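Discussion board: Methods & Data

I've been asked by a reviewer to show the raw model output for two of the constructs in my manuscript, not just the figures. I'm not sure how much to include, so I'm pasting the format here to get opinions. Each protein appears as its amino acid sequence followed by a line of discrete structure tokens. Is this the kind of thing reviewers expect to see in a supplement, or should I convert it first? Here is construct A:
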Amino acid sequence: MKKRMIEIMDKFHQYNSDNMAYLAFGLDKNEHYDALVVAPSFSPYKLKMDSYCKVTTLKEGAYIAGYLVEKDDLKIAWIKTASSDSNLIDHVAVCAELTFDKMIFIGAVGALKPEFELGDLCTPSFSIAGGFAHTYLKDSIKDFVPFERVEPDMEFINNVVGIAEESGYELKKASVFCTPSIAAEYYHLEEIKEFDTDLIEMETASLYLMADLLEIPTVALLVVSDNSATGAALVGRTDEEQSRYDYGRNVVLPTMILKTADAK
């Protein structure tokens, strides 16, 4: 963990309780976890992982929840959060007091180019931060850089891409624009497309900045849920589109979560 993250946590604890991961998610800071899964809106039950894993609900709130997922010798801490970069920062910070070997972010992503189909599994090659929340991870909030480009550590990501290939899946590297608003992004869609990114979602720029501060190997696994370039809608999919999306979300994604958690 980098010095700045330690300082962030020290100030966080100064004004809040200790053992926040337990209070928020029911996760034990004395346990060692193979991975932390960070999942806006996705629970292990939603991905039907309880049919072949032991899933224990630790704590459920109005917007967040904590789970323990166990499979053979694997022990995975799983947090379900609300969407947005600020929620990502806050809830990963809460879990910074836990011990885990790697971090796996999972979520849905919209495509901005026609070559991406519903159900495709993607991971960011870089993310453009379209919001402001990530600036709070800097030394000063006055150091805001508009549309900052965030690049992940690709060594671990390339390893996960290889794991997918060995498993018969394709994990596509793709550029991402991170929007702070879903409703208003469509009004600015033509401007957003000027950044020439492949995908659009909300959290991965802040995710990889947090991963850098935590010094934890991290990968984002994103399932394409809609495509504004082809007209494949988030709501009102055709049967074929729904089938492709369900396969990516309910088969490929859970398999890759387990295989990534088990990666050495």
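Construct B, same format:
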Amino acid sequence: MNSRSHTVAVPLASPQVFRHGIRHPDLWLWDAWTYTDESTLHLFCLALARTNSCGQAITPADRNDYPFHVRHFSSGDGGESWRDCGAYLCPDERPGSPTEHNIWSGSALLHGDQLLFGFTGVTKPGVGRSFHQSICLLTSSPEATPDLADTVVLSDPSRDYEAIRKAGYYLGPWSTLGSDGGEEDGPILAWRDPFFVPEDDGTLRAYWAGKVGPAEPAVASGRVRLTDEGYVMDKLYDPIVPPDVSQYTQSEVPKVYRNPRDGSLLMLTSTCNRVSEDQPDEEVSKELRLYQAPGFDGPWTPYAADGATLPGIRHLFGGEFSDVDFVSRRASLIAPYTEMAEPELQLTFADIRKVSLEPENVKKPAPAA
């Protein structure tokens, strides 16, 4: 399979200090995941140069034609300003690598003295199958850059096809997994965007984007355990299907936050009604939705009686709460703008938004992105 790395450069870290969001002069940026180490807030996101190796402009709509990379930014003032730390991970195009074709979103968890870095590996098993995804994990120290050669593939739709289907998840025909054209008149394969939450017994609860039907989204979950051979996913739990799931076709980049006082959970997801990668952006609406559950086993319900959609969050998608204050019921949202924002804001990061988690303040759905 031909290398795609030559098609687009990975720009060096910019010396610019970005304030009140990140409008990077050289990069498109989207999706967000964070962790805090002492007083430093670390932000990771997907990134792609705004021009290709031939000097031609890359539009947001064309970004799947190129390999992405994971970009790292850091902040010493809670996200008021950001420093570009450069590329953190780039696809490993060696044959057999889980990122041979591309690398997609994930999460970062400071777990003891280790950083557990989750991400989505993307391969292309054949012509017209550019979106084959797997759930991946790397461990390193916070100061080090992990080596993709050490990637642990926790779950892979081809390798684990029967086990995934037996657990209640939908996968299209094995021979067409990752099809560019989607799955049986629905969106593309969904087995991506891992996020990890520690459990009391020392295991990790993993959450990621999945499906229960061709166009029926779900949040997948599983148990990740450290063994003598390393981390493994040894259990798949039932799909999480919120009661308002009929309002959208994809649920992506789930982020789950646990209240240390009572074990209750909040889940922030990014949802849209896209059914095809060729669909014009003006036909697609995108929202941030918030759900709650009394514990890991659910049930999951919209955070407010009037619905899960966060109000006042226009054109933001793929976001994360960098912190959640369960006592004051407020959170800090870091999120990029969608392609539906005004041109100078598209695929840049907004300033940090303070979000009220009081149900009475979460009433009217936000306008579609």
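Answer (T.O., handling editor elsewhere):
This is acceptable in a supplement if you add a one-line summary per construct. For B, something like: The radius of gyration is 19 Å.
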